[in-house]
Design a protein that fits this description.
With 302 residues, the chain is of the alpha+beta class. It has 3 domains: 2-72; 74-172, no CATH class; 183-299, Glucose Permease (Domain IIA) (Distorted Sandwich), CATH 2.70.70.10. The chain has 3 helices and 15 strands. The protein has helices at 21-108, 138-172, 296-299, and strands at residues 2-9, 12-17, 183-186, 189-192, 199-202, 205-208, 214-216, 221-229, 233-241, 244-249, 251-254, 261-262, 267-271, 281-288, 291-293. Strands 3, 6, 8, 9, 10, 12, 14 and 15 form an 8-stranded antiparallel sheet that branches. Strands 7-13-11 form a 3-stranded antiparallel sheet, with no helix packed on it. Helix 1 (21-108) packs parallel to helix 2.
């Protein structure tokens, strides 16, 4: 058997002659070994390439996970910063409410023990040891601040109601003069009656002025009389509550009606001389529990 290798070896083809069975077996064994080596090398090379590709994919996954972790950390830090800012805002609100409450209590001259805006201090802080990151029990702090804000809101609501009631009581109590311009022409008490010349009790105060000048209400209330009444001429009566009533007599013109709600300082009539009168003036009476009292102390109030 002849095997010829075609190639340039000293310019001539290479020929190998296999004469016996031994040489043929040896050649076959060599070819098989070479084939196995070639297949094994290809498999190893393919395995190496696959492993390299897998490692590259794992590297990409690790890089992606690192990026996600970094983003999560930044997001968590941002949320903590936002939460800390919210806590700061809530604490500032508690401090402002405390300051407002203290001022209102002082201005209204109320019992500071009943409306206490000083004892509770907004909760804040946390451990900070060396380089350790300061930590706060945010849920507990927020719950405490929310409780304080609710408490302050309730106290301020009650305080507002107390002040409003006090203001309403103040505005419903007669105070000031029933005229815009004019002068006092007669006081409360015994005097010589201008018609009979005898000593008689004068149960009001007279304020004289120009005919047609404005007569104003001295407190908030509701009109209970608006018309002619014996001796008073055209008279207006206003009920202010809490037992107080005021009367305005001798009006030239009445500008309100029974049932009207009146506010302090509102013009209710024009000055005249109707009824038992000697000239333009308003006869002003203050009644407490249906009894005339001296209007002077109410007129002096401003």
């Amino acid at each position: 058997m002849n095997i010829i290798f075609v190639g340039k070896f000293r310019g001539k083809p290479l020929r190998c002659q296999l004469d016996g069975p031994g040489q043929l077996i040896l050649c076959s064994a060599f070819l098989c070994a070479f084939s196995v080596l070639l297949v094994s090398g290809g498999y190893w090379y393919g395995s190496q390439q696959a492993a390299t590709s897998e490692l590259a994919e794992l590297g990409d996954d690790i890089s992606e996970q690192k990026l996600l972790i970094s983003e999560a950390r930044q997001s968590a830090e941002s949320e903590l910063d936002a939460l800390a800012a919210r806590l700061g805002t809530m604490q500032a609100n508690v401090i402002r409410l405390n300051a407002l409450g203290q001022r209102l209590v002082k201005v209204a001259k109320l019992d500071a023990k009943e409306f206490n805006f000083k004892d509770e201090v907004p909760s804040y802080g946390g451990p900070n040891e060396g380089d350790q990151v300061a930590s706060l029990d945010f849920d507990s702090v927020i719950a405490d601040l929310d409780k304080q804000l609710s408490s302050r809101e309730a106290q301020l609501s009650v305080l507002e109601e107390v002040i409003m009631n006090r203001q309403l009581l103040s505005e419903s109590k007669p105070r000031g003069r029933p005229i815009v311009k004019g002068w006092t022409s007669s006081y409360y008490g015994k005097r010589t009656d201008p018609f009979s010349g005898k000593l008689a009790m004068h149960k009001g105060m007279d304020f004289a002025g120009k005919e047609g000048s404005e007569i104003i209400a001295v407190a908030n209330g509701v009109v209970t009389w608006a018309g002619d009444r014996y001796g008073y001429g055209n008279m207006i009566e206003i009920n202010h509550g809490n037992g107080y009533t005021t009367r305005y007599g001798h009006n030239a013109e009445i500008l309100v009606e029974v049932g009207d709600t009146i506010t302090k300082g509102q013009t209710i009539s024009l000055m005249g001389s109707t009824g038992r009168s000697t000239g333009p003036h308003v006869h002003f009476e203050v009644l407490k529990n249906d009894r005339q009292v001296n209007p002077a102390k109410f007129v002096a109030l401003q």
